[in-house]
Amino acid sequence: MDKTIELVNAIKDIQAMPSVIVKVLNVMKKPTVSMKELGDLVIYDQSLTIKILALVNSAYYGFSQQISSISIALSLLGMVKVKNIIVAVAMKPMMSNAGDKELWKHSMRVAAGCEYLAKLTKVMDADEAFIAGFIHDVGKIVLHTTNPKMYDKVVAITNEGHDILEVEKKYFDSDHVRTGSLLAKRWQLPILLANIISYHHNPSLSSIPVPCNLVCFVDKLMQEAFDPNTLDKDFLKTMGLDLGDIEELRKVIRQKAELLIAELT
Ligand SMILES: [Fe+2]
Ligand SMILES: [Fe+2]
What we know:
Layout: H1 3-9, H2 12-16, H3 19-29, H4 35-43, H5 46-56, H6 70-77, H7 79-97, H8 101-121, H9 126-135, H10 140-146, H11 148-159, H12 164-172, H13 176-186, H14 191-199, H15 209-221, H16 233-238, H17 246-264
Helix pairs in contact: 1-13, 3-4, 3-7, 4-6, 5-7, 6-7, 7-8, 7-9, 8-9, 8-15, 8-17, 9-14, 10-11, 10-13, 11-12, 13-14, 14-15
The structure holds fe (ii) ion (2 copies).
């Protein structure tokens, strides 16, 4: 059996996991979805509701009034933003259960960065950019769950400046793009998200390169060992930015993301 299929099949929790997420994403695909339908998906899960409200009330969204119910959140923030928050909150235990505390934080940073840059440069819809940034590394959960110690080793080697996909391939005979792509297929994720997962390390191969480029760009920006030389200069130009903006941009995005992360850690 193909190694990627073997790895994904071995993790039963992951295949059963995303019921609320899949429901939320599927509900959003319907053109006539009502706020009630979306609200009903989470309202019966008290701990999820509490965490969602904590995020909605965080300084990131900047509301002066306290938001005390999902239905008020929906009317103030809009359905797409609330959907994004639901997915980010609902996936936290899965990402953390995989023992990889850094993965959820990294995903939130890339989500916040993509949202911010999309709003600033108008290269794509900002709400879609958030969820695209959040989901990009979902395949890492499979590798980390399979062998946490070995995956920590992969991360350490990658932090020394090696290509992550090559290091993963060496230790796991697969990589997080392959495992993520298979998850996206099994979960029937929307095309945009499946594309981000498959091509965020190779945006030029994607049929929708702009969102993949954006995620790839912010992903690099949020690395601990960030190297400006790895950024795609053409895409930088497309966004109307230049290398001189990068350090400030990195600082602003990190600060914004910390506002979200602080509410849930
Ligand atoms: Fe990645
Ligand atoms: Fe990443």
